[in-house]
Amino acid sequence: MKWVALAFVVIVVSLLPPVPALADDEYTFDGSGWGHGVGFSQYGAYGQAIADPSKSGEDIASYYFTGSAPASLADLSLSNDALLTEPNPLWVGLAQNVQVLEFTPIGGSVSLCQGGSCSGLPAPGPSQTWTFEVVGSECAWFNGGTQQGSTGPCDATISWPAATGVEVRDLTNAALICGSVAELSRCQYRRGQLELRADPVGAGFHVVLAIGLDEYLYGLRELPDSWTVGGVNEAQATVARSYAAVDFLSREVPSARTPTDAGLSSTRQDLCWCHSYDDTRSQYYVGYDKELGARQWVEAVDATSGRVLTYFGDGWEWSTEDGVLQGFYASSPGAWTESNVTGFGSSVQYPYLYPVADPWSLDPAVGNPYAAWSETFSAASLAQLLGVDAVTDVALSAGPPGAVVVFSTAAGEIQLSGSALRSALGLRSASVNAVNGVAAGPAPVFSDISGSVHQAAIEAIYDAGITVGCTASSFCVNDDVLRGQMASFIARAMDLPAPTGDHATDDANSVHHDNINRIYDAGIPVSCGDRLYCPGEEITREHMAVFLYRALDLPDADNDEFTDDESSPYQREINAIASAGITLGCADGIFCPDDVVSRGQMASFLVRAFLADSSGT
Fold first, then answer.
1. 345-374 as b/e, with b when 16 or more CB fall inside 10 Å?
2. Quick check: helix, strand or coil at residue 314?
3. Pairing state of beta strands 111-114 and 69-72?
4. Strands (E), 153-295
5. How confident is the model at residue 613 (pLDDT cuts 50, 70, 90)?
C-alpha cells in the first residue's frame, strides 16, 4: 500500500483569531499523543483493558478500524496460501549490505549451506564465534580469523535443527542487528533460520530471518512487558498479525517462490530481500529476548493464533489484501486517532482508517508520558523550518483530529496539518490542541470532514436532520452513496410520511427499509428490476438526477447542458437538475453520468436541492 506525502501549500485562508505572541515572538504548541496516530492506539487499548478487564482483545482492536471484523486467516480466500502452508514463509530483513556477519551457536552445532549446497561445510559448535565475510566478489566462512573452506556465493543459510539458536552481530559497523536495543550485546534468534542473500545491485549481502507468522510475533517488542491487564496484549497481537500478513500478501510473488527462496520482486531483493523490516519501517522485532521478559505476550500470540482484522465493506478490494486490513498502530494519538489522509498524507481515504475517539489514551491511569506535551519555537526558528523569510503570526484553525495550523508569512499563509505539520516542526504528534493557549473554534460535526470541499454542505444536511453519518463520529465523505442511503437522504429531506405499503422484495433486512417504502409511496425511485430496489448498490450520477428530478417535480429544461449524456436514458432528468442549479457537472461541459456519487458530493447535491439558503460546494 502506497502513501503519498503531503506538500506544503501556500494558500489564503479566512481570518482567524490572532494568537498572542510570547516574549521575543515565541509560539508554544500544546498537544497530545506520540506518533502518526493512525489506526490502533496502544495506550488507548491499554486504557480500555484497564477500564474493562473482561473486554476481549479483538473487540478492543476492531474499535480502531471502522467497519472491521476479526477472522481467521484459514477461513479467508487468500490469493496466496504460502503464509499458511510454508514452514518459514515470512522473510524479515535484519540488516542490509553487510560485509561481515558474526554468529555464535547456542546449545549445539548449527548447519551451514552456501550457494544451494549443504555438504562439505563446517558445523560450528556451541559458543564458537564464527563470521561470514565478503571476500572479493564472493563470501567465505571464518573461525578465529581463519577462513574455513573455499570462497563461494554470498547466498547462504544458517539453521539450527540440532541447536537452540544463534547470537548474531553485524560487524560491518560494529552494530547490533536487532534494532537499537542497547542493553543487548548480541541479538538472539531461536526461531526460523537465517538466510543470507547477495545484494543483486549493491555491495555485500542482506541478512534475513525466515520465520513463521506467529513465531515472528513472539519477538515483537511493541508493548511494555509490564502491561498484563485484560485484553491489551491480545489486541496488539491481532493488529500486528494483520500488519505482517499484509506485508507478506502484498509483497510475495507466488511464481517467484522456490524451495530455498521467498517470492520477492527484484526491487525487494535489492532493498532487503524481505517482506518486512525488523524496525519501525515495519514492526519492531528483537527476537528471542522479547520472549524472555514477557510470557504474557507469548500467551497472547498463542491465544489469538491465526486471527487478523478484516474489512469487507465498500472499497475492500483496493484497500485490503484479500480482506485483511493494514493494521497500522501508534503509541497514542491524543483524544482522537488520525485518518490516513492526515496521519500519513495519503491522497485517498482508506475506508477503515477514519478517526475515532480515544479518551482512554489520556486517562491518568495508563501513565501515558505524552498525554500532554508542549513545544515552544521562536518566530525565527519557525521561519527556518518552513523555509521562509519571516513568520509573523501562528493560529490553530481546526482540529484535532486533522489539526490545521496556519502560519502567516510575508509571502502568504502556509497551512499545515497531519504528517506535514509533524514532520516540518518535529512534533511528537500532529494532535495540536492550542497555539499560545488559543484553541481552534468548534470542531466539525464529523471528525473526517475537515478540509473537504463539501464540509459546509455536510454540516448543513446534518443540522437539517438529513444525515446521521456513517458512524457516531464520521461521515465517510469519500465513500460511495448506496441506494438504501439515498432513500433515507431523500425521505428525511422531504419529511415524507410513514409508508403505506411494502414495495420491494429485496430490502427486508435493510436499515433503510421504511425510507425505501416512503420514497416508493412518493413515486420517486428508479427500480433495478421487477419489485427490486437493490439497496446495497451504488448510486450513479444519472440515477441521482432521476431521484432528485422526481422528488422535486422539476420542469423539463430548454437547454442541453452537457455533451456526454446523449446516450443516457436520463438525459431529460440530467438537464433538469442542471437547469435548477443542482449540478454543475463533473468538468466543463460534461456530466459523467455513469460515475458513482460519493457521500460528500451527495451532501452538496442535497443542499442545492433542498436547502437553497445553505452554502455548499
1. bbeebbbbbbbbebebbbbeebebebbebe
2. coil
3. unpaired
4. 156-159, 165-170, 187-189, 193-198, 205-211, 276-277
5. low
Amino acid at position 499, single letter = P
In one letter, which amino acid is 171?
L
End-to-end CA distance of the chain: 31
**Amino acid at residue number 550:** R
Q: Which of 501, 461, 541, 549 is nearest to 516 (CA)?
A: 501
Report the alpha-carbon distance of residue 543 to residue 568 in Å, rounded: 10
Q: Are strands 90-98 and 276-277 parallel, antiparallel or unpaired?
A: parallel
Q: Torsion-angle region of residue 564: left (phi > 0), alpha (psi -120 to 50) or beta?
A: alpha
- Phi, psi angles (nearest 5°) of residue 438: -100, 120
Long-range Cβ contacts of 545-550 (<8 Å, 24+ apart): 545/570, 545/573, 545/574, 545/576, 545/577, 545/583, 545/593, 546/570, 546/573, 547/486, 547/490, 547/519, 548/490, 548/573, 548/577, 548/582, 548/605, 548/609, 549/573, 549/576, 549/577, 550/522, 550/523, 550/524
DSSP-based three-state secondary structure for 318: helix
CB 310 within 8 A of CB 324: yes
**What tens digit of pLDDT does each residue of 179-212 get?**
555 444 568 999 999 999 999 988 899 999 999 9
Q: Which three cell numbers stand for residue 352?
A: 477503515
Residue whose C-alpha cell is 431521484: 547
pLDDT digits (tens, 9 = 90+) for 520-550: 999 998 788 888 999 999 999 999 999 999 9
Cell of 30: 500544546
Q: E-assigned strands of 243-351? A: 276-277, 307-310, 329-330
Q: How many helices (H) and strands (E) does the chain have?
A: 18, 23
Burial class of residue 581 (count of CB atoms within 10 Å of its CB; 0-12, 13-18, 19+): exposed
Instruction: Look up residue 361 and give its DSSP letter.
Output: G
How many Cα atoms within 13 Å fall on the side-chain side of residue 144? 4
Whole-angstrom distance, CA of residue 118 vs CA of residue 612: 78
The cell numbers describing 605, all together, are: 447535491
Give the rounded distance of the alpha carbon of 564 from its chain centre: 37
Burial of 482 (0-12, 13-18, 19+ CB in 10 A): buried
| Residue predicted with more confidence, 154 or 170 | 154
Q: Can you tell me the distance from the alpha carbon of 40 to that of 61, in angstroms, rounded to the nearest whole number?
A: 7
In the block, which residue shows the cell 505572541? 21
Q: What are residue 409's DSSP bridge partners?
A: 391, 412
C-alpha cell at 381: 526558528
Domain boundary assignment for the chain? 9-34+369-435, 82-223+247-296, 455-610
E strands, 243-371, are 276-277, 307-310, 329-330
Amino acid identity, position 435? V
465-493 pLDDT tens trace: 999 888 877 899 999 999 999 999 999 99
CA–CA dist 354, 328 (Å, integer) = 12
DSSP, residue by residue, 218-237: HTB--S-TT--STTHHHHHH
Confidence of residue 17 (pLDDT cuts 50, 70, 90): very low
Residue 337 and residue 353: Cα distance in Å, rounded?
A: 9
**Pairing between β-strand 156-159 and β-strand 111-114 as defined by DSSP bridges:** antiparallel
